[in-house]
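User: Can you predict the 3D structure for this chain?
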Amino acid sequence: AAKIAKHAHSNGSTLRESALELGLVTNDQFDQWVRPREMIGPKE
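Assistant: Here is the predicted structure, written as structure tokens:
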């Protein structure tokens, strides 16, 4: 995750773009693992 975030930050790209460019995940895997709605608001 840190590698993807650093790559995205230094290249001005999104996390998805960086993850795919680095070949670390597929588009479907990214959708399964990254769920923005679950990252906001209080935890239940």
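Helices lie at 2-11, 15-21, 27-33. The mean pLDDT is 93.
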